[in-house]
Every structure is written in C-alpha cells, then in structure tokens.
Amino acid sequence: MQEYNLNAFDLVNVSFKTEASGERVQKAHEYAQSLYEELKVHGGNLTRDRLLAILLLGITDDLLQQKDKAKNLNTFLISLLKKIDDCIPDNPQ
Fold it and tell me: Are 33 and 8 in contact (CB under 8 A)?
C-alpha cells in the first residue's frame, strides 16, 4: 500500500494509506478540495466540521447517483443483448 500525506480542507498533513494510484489520489483530492472551497465561499460562517459534513453528503450523493446510472445502463445493455439474441435464429443453416 502506498502512503499519502496531503494538505486538504484547511488541515495540514492528512496521512493515509491506500492501494489507489497517485494519479487517482490527486484527482480525488483536487475534486474534493474544489468542492470544499466552493462550499466555503457560499457557506459563510459555517465551521470546518460542518463544511466537511456537507461535503461528505454531497460527494456521497454524487456516488449514489453514479451507481444508479450504472445500474440503469447495465439493465439497458442486458435488455439490448436479449433483443439481439431473440433476433438470431436458434439453428442457423
């Protein structure tokens, strides 16, 4: 496992280990940090803990929506494959 040490969300030296590549960690960090900065601008006097809770809920919602889209796409693709199979004769001659 690779260990990472990031400065994120007004916290210094957040350390963690993961099997994700450095590129994935960096992209995730940039995405979450940009959302956090946007929340700070619009959040006014909210504490960092409250901003992080809102950020967590927002990212979790994004994840759940993507999972739902993937499930719907999978269902659609299975339906298409079934239609293709139904068009192919059982005993080609």
Answer: yes
76 pLDDT band, cuts 50/70/90, is very high
Helix then strand then coil, in percent of the chain rounded to 5, is 65, 15, 15
Calculate the alpha carbon distances from 53 to 36, 45, 48, 82, 91 in Å.
Answer: 10, 14, 9, 43, 60
Tokens representing 65 are: 């929506």
pTM: 0.71
User: At what angle are helices 48-87 and 22-43 packed, to 10 degrees?
Assistant: 120
Predicted confidence band of residue 93 (pLDDT cuts 50, 70, 90):
low
Stated as kind and residue range, the H or E segment containing 15 is strand 11-18
